[in-house]
Amino acid sequence: MEVVSEAKEFPRRRLIYGALFLLLLIFPFKAGPYWTDVATFFGIYVLLGLSLNIIVGEVGLFNMGHAAFYALGAYTTGILNTVWGIPTVWLLPVSGIVAGGFGYLLTRPIIHLRGDYLLIVTIGLNEILRITLINDPWGLTGGPNGVLGIKRMRLGSLVISRPIHFYFLVLIITTLVVMALLRLQRSRIGRAWNYIREDEVAAEAMGIDVRSMKLLAFVLGAGLAGIAGSIYATKMMIISPESFTFWESIVLFTIVVLGGMGSIPGVIVGSAVMMILPELLRDFMQYRMLFFGAAMVVMMVFRPQGLWPSKRWQLEMGRETEE
Amino acid sequence: MLELFLEQLVNGLTVGSVYSLVALGYTMVYGVMRLINFAHGELFMLGSYLGFTLLVSTSIGELGVGWGLIIIVLMVAGAMALLGILIERVAYAPLRKSGRLAPVVSALGVSIFLQNAAMLIWGSRYRAYPVWAALDRRWEIGGVHITLMQAIILGVSINLMLLLYCMIQRTTLGAAIRATAIDQETARLMGIDVNAIIRFIFIIGPALGAVAGVMVGLYYRQLHFTMGWTYSLKAFTAAIMGGIGNIPGAMVGGMFLGILEMLGAGYISAAWKDVFVFVILIALLILRPTGLLGERVAEKV
User: Which of A43, A206, B1, B98 is the most buried (most CB within 10 A)?
Assistant: First the structure.
């Protein structure tokens, strides 16, 4: 039944997505630089949300220190560019690899930790990194002021500097990532991840290498966050530890849960809520964050499964209640 | 050399007993509901602010250190217990059956709400507790200084913890709490009112947190609306170090964390003390994945 309805729905859905994508292409030409910038940052958050979604959403590993990997990417770009003058175009993939590598090294010894133990350890990693950045080891990170004067990316004769350039850079990367992740979800790996999330013991018994699958999620998630960090660094040209606090990790975590665990459209909706809601509440002035906190509670109470839960999740949960 | 060590040990125990009190709130809620109640730190912070207001704008403080302190602490603890129940009703009760992460986000929402409420009420600048000269009385024991306030913190926390421990281990209510922590469904079948147990947990936890808040205010004298974050992170770490869901574990974990932190500040450097604490935490969890005393939580497989 499910397959039939999905097939019938497919062309129409494809049409809607196509139209949305066209809108995204036209958007920066109509919206002006301010909103283009807002959209760019929104895109960076979507990237970060997607990267965390791999870890929290797909595999169900509680990671509340994701800003650490974001910071690793940003600082890799910042330091390598300002100290050794390596062009930032090259540093985009390098930052991803470095962050992914750290993701492997840092989580390898702790990957066996269950649920909340992993949560506190990831918070700990986030704090360790933030304090290290502030304390400026070997004069590399610039302490509380951070790294200044990061160069923009240069592609041939094009310097990615105007809001519209960044908009398209982020749009292209995000689109590619979304497409790759959609494929991944339907692959053996994606299914293995979901299996681990739903029942780790059964997954292990079915021959899934739980440990490497979890590590793979961490490496991919961290690497993707590193790429987002690299974009952020070249966009801002200045990075400082205060952009990568525990609070940032909480926002990312909330994006994933609010949107719906393991749901790619959910991440986009979640990022929109976390970014746009504070803007909409601007009229409330100093009461803004008060309402924001209350809104988080209300949204969770009324939609505990997330604003846009994943199909697979719905199917599973639906079956469970039928039995 | 030894003096520095002992001095830091006393400081560590003082801070650690505060962490323990806050960690108890975390660990009890976790034990019964499997929920990391991130809003708990904010109740500690609100308790601290409320104590400040009572001390500054009423004349309770004039009753002297003994009665004045007792009345303030009781009032604050009562208020926070009420708030705790309210939060449970509004933000957690509707989410009891909906997975692990939805209540966590709800708790984060409550936390943001309370933090900003405190900022709106008491302002975003640091506030200072009034100086209470009697609390600064110092003794010297074997070269180590200890103030009256430190003695009060240690005495009150240790007594409260012993009381709680006895209640959990010796009374029928305690047995009901332990049963609920092990298996809610079975506990319900045995005639335990699980909802009442959860409400009770949300009275005890915030009340203990509030006592800790007032004592921290009197000890450090500085208040800020973000202090809930800082302490809640530490207290949560302490609860994990001891083994979450384990009540003696939270007590031991808090003390251990406090001592670690102060030794780190004394021997390494104040700037790196939190790094030191978290590195020890990670090392500890690699060696003992369920904390110092082991958890008391039955994981559902």
Answer: A43
B contacts of A305 (beta carbons < 8 Å): 98-99, 102
How buried is B111 (Cβ within 10 angstroms: 0-12 exposed, 13-18 middle, 19+ buried)?
buried
Cα of B84 to nearest chain A Cα, Å: 15
Cβ contacts of B113 on chain A, cutoff 8 Å: 290, 293-294, 297
- A149-165 b/e (C-beta count within 10 Å ≥ 16 → b): ebbbbeeeeeebeebbb
Other CB atoms within 10 Å distance of the CB of residue A3: 7
Q: Domain holding B26: CATH number? A: 1.10.3470
Pairwise CA distance, residues A72 & A68, whole Å? 6
Identify whether A311 is part of a domain.
no
Structural domain contains residue B152: no
* A43, two tokens: 């895109």
Q: Which two tokens stand for residue B11?
A: 């400081």
Residue B131 inside a domain? The answer is: no
Flag whether B97 is in a domain: yes
Per-residue pLDDT of chain A (323 residues; tens, 9 = 90+): 445 455 555 678 788 888 888 888 888 888 888 888 888 999 999 999 999 999 998 998 999 999 999 999 999 999 999 888 888 888 899 999 999 999 999 999 888 887 788 888 999 999 999 999 998 888 888 888 888 888 888 887 887 778 888 899 999 999 999 999 999 998 999 999 999 988 889 999 999 999 999 999 999 999 999 999 999 999 988 899 988 988 889 999 999 998 888 889 999 999 998 887 877 777 777 788 888 889 889 988 888 888 888 776 555 554 444 33
The residue segments making up the domain with residue A233 are: 35-245
- Is residue A137 a part of any domain in this protein? yes
A204 found inside a domain = yes
Task: Say if residues A260 and A313 touch (Cβ distance below 8 Å).
Answer: yes
Split into its structural domains, chain B has a count of 1
Judged on CB neighbours under 10 Å (0-12, 13-18, 19+), A22 is exposed
Decide if B62 is inside a domain.
Answer: yes
Q: What count of other Cβ atoms lies within 10 Å of the Cβ of residue A196? A: 23
This model of the complex carries an ipTM of 0.85
Domain that holds residue B32: 2-126+170-287
Q: Are A256 and A267 in contact (CB under 8 A)?
A: yes
Among the listed residues A143, A144, A173, the one whose alpha carbon sits nearest the alpha carbon of residue A234: A173
CA distances from residue A292 to A85, A131, A251 in whole angstroms, order as listed: 42, 28, 12
User: Which of chain A's residues have a Cβ under 8 Å away from the Cβ of B92?
Assistant: none
Q: Is the overall model pTM greater than 0.95, yes or no? A: no
Query: How far does B60 lie from chain A, in Å, by closest CA?
Result: 31
In a domain, A318, yes or no: no
Q: Token pair for residue B21?
A: 């009190």
Number of domains in chain A: 1
